Amino acid sequence: MNTGRKGNKWYKLDNAAIIIPCSAHGADTRVFRIACELNEDVDPAILQTALDETLKEFPYLNSCLRKGLFWYYLDALPFGAKVEEDAEPVMFPIYIPGRRNLLYRVTYYKRRINLEMFHVLADGTGAIIFLRRLLTNYLSAVHHLDPCAAQDFSSRDEKTIDAFSRYYQHEKDFKIGQLKSVNAYQLHGERDMNQLSHVVEAVLSAKQFVDAAHKYGTTVGVFATSLYIAAVIDGMSVHDSTKPVVISVPVNLRQFFPSDTTRNFFGVITIIYYAKDYDGDLQSIIKIVKDQFSEQLQHENISNTMNSFSALVHNMAIKFIPLVLKEPGLTYFIYLQRKGVTASMSNMERITMPDEITPYIDHFAAFMSAPGMQVTMATFGDKLVFGSAGTFTSHPVMLRFYRRLTEMGIDVEIATNDYNNHTADIKEAR
């Protein structure tokens, strides 16, 4: 955090957020949504009071994005968000270049509370920290409970620190040329003409899914990634099968480097699988995916991927180039990176709430806008929710994914926001 000459607070972007403004185009709004489904209807007035109280602990969120000479930065605003009924399309753009507006929104609809954020503010874990506190304040007020039970003891500075800078190791500095990718298989299908996000939310038993993963001798993350790869391969033509299926998997770096930051602090591992290696048995995919997870999640490799996010910031050939000249190059770099990914699979892991608050919550769901397809897993209690998002108006890959689960005896309840009545095929997967 910094203070300008007039006393205005401003914040440097963390190293993972540096290129996000350049990637926020069209369907990829770089907005994510975390939704909490309660067991009762939402009281918007109490929710607004709870939000105002929560923001006192997270003042950093009340910022707008501005252009500096060399990089973007966050400029503090003197107001917070106003709670509104959910009316806009899911993950509608938040960042509007040149506009001094907040980069998050809090909405409600019946029993659901939604938090949407522009990715420069936080990653999914950071957003959950904020949402957890908001929900605790809200439900404590509604049910006359003590909200202090969920109080965390990290300071405001600890919540807003750039953890990448704290753990960055100069001797392991990455070179930009090292950030290469393969020419991955790309998903096909009719897209929304207005580039709106179509989401599918699937609720299933976490225990059933974990048990299925254990039957295959693997973890939830490996199992979900392998199932998705199988669902992709099921729809590939012989010609397409020459290209690898590449799944990008975000990794919460707080598991490896202690930090209480609510800002971005994640790495990415890349899982590559060739359809020619698939013999019809899911185990043939799991074995290769499991090995890649194991190798890439080694501490040294995680450290390298963390440092890769600092490559642009610390590269002297790029650092002092004016932003107006950097943007076209960064945009092209992002384009090349996207060609190297088929889809993304993110596991937010298990979400917990204070014991007093838990009975009032049914489940959580998370979604991330994407130019192709992003699948996000969120677990609360015995409810595991897969949230998939993209601009495709039909969902053949996810349907094949869920059919595989139902064939294993796992019950799946599915909902979608499809705008053009593309719902008949969704019902088939129930």
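The above is record 1. Record 2 follows with the same two-line structure.
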Amino acid sequence: MDLGLALPQFGYSIPGADGLSWAATVEWARRAEALGFGSVWLADHLFLSIEKYGGAPGDHDALEPIAALAALSRLTDRVRLGTLVLCAPFRPPAVLAKQLAGLDRVSGGRLVAGLGAGWFEPEFEAAGIPFLSPRARLDILAETLDIVRAVMTNDGPVTFTGQHHHVAGARANPGPVQTPAPPLWVGGRGDRLLEVVAGHADGWNTVWAITTEDYGERLGVLHRACERAGRDPATVDLSVGLTALVGEDEADVARRYQRFREQAPAGTAPTEGLETWRQGRLVGTVDQVGEQLSAWSALGVSTVIANLGAVPFAVTTLDDLDLVAAALPKE
């Protein structure tokens, strides 16, 4: 199993820090690689609010993921570099294909390109991009996946005409290192989105809290969508992102949970007790979390992406990362 890390990339990501720090992002990426993590991940937002998680109103700065991962590709040696997830409406698909092919090339073939339909309406408004209905955004996502794959896997020009996108003579030369192309994943969990996965993507991801039972139910929806699409469900790469907290023993888990709440951005700390909060998350002693990872592997999940903070792409302290790494079952 590949264990990944959601890197700090927003103004709120580092406890006690005053805004965004590229040096901190680099430090966490390098530490994860040294500990044996198989991948590191960045989200895609022009800016982000954590008001929906209980935080104060206001926007937080964000690193642009394609540029940041390109830089990280020169500062790391082995880890896969992933997007969780690129917002499909933000970039023309042929331009995105060119960017992703370039990122895969400069990284030596380490890219995993996760894409999504987008959900944060204020950044659409700020960029002057129409915030269409969920169905329309999913249709845009499906067309984007088809165009990006076609452009990255063909030496010659690609022509495509869809409801939302049209390209004529698109190309991405030099192409990616991975053949036929870097894997294209889709993030989300709704029924219609799983239809997009079945028909257009290489892999599926959902985040940040879900039990194995609920995941199994969603997996059943995906399998039925694959059957309708004439696809073997075993060809879909499965991944899940989970908020993670690991301790040396139960008392240490409780202590770290208290510290986790204290380090959360103001207003976002969980209010429930540890036993309630840990459900659907990667929480426990090293041995317990190792068993949880094995249970995810038994469901066919090949990548688990750990999120260390109370909100997405936030972290706590580096010693928490050490214990998460220790929980990865040894082959």
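The radius of gyration is 19 Å.
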